[in-house]
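Why does residue order matter? Because the sequence determines the fold. Keep that principle in mind as you read this record.
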Amino acid sequence: MIHDSHPFATPDEERDPVRRFRGRLSAPVTVVTAGNGERRTGLTVSSLMVADGEPGRVFFLCGHNTDLSDRVVEAGGFVVHVLGWVDRHLADRFSGRVPSPGGLFLGIEASDGPRGPLIAALPTRAECRLISTTDVGWYLLIEGEVESVALGEPVAPLQYHRGRFPPPPGHS
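Structure:
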């Protein structure tokens, strides 16, 4: 055996305890999109909360230095696409884990909606009007009001846990 762990990993006792705590929570995986045409962008987001009610609200964290935070403000809204287990490749693509030469949307069927790109392969989504952004340290807390919801067929969810996408029960 060469290594049983990453040879350059920061030792546990030196890691940020808040990040370690967050890593023990399972989170849903989504792709949030905003902008249109040449200004399209998207980002994999797992720090997200949905509050139902009249109207419903979506809250998510987005890095200050991302194209997405700029586009959400410019466009006045965003689209949240729910990913299933079979959509792991899109989570990796929109998170920047894998390269996407030619742009994030190259080879992906997407149309421009009023709040951002609508990815055809991800039929469960919410289109939201921007309500506010709040600085919360390294991130912006973005709040949107749900204007419309599209529901695809239920699928095995994609979850993020401890830096990985563990398979749902019955999948390997």
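The mean pLDDT is 89.
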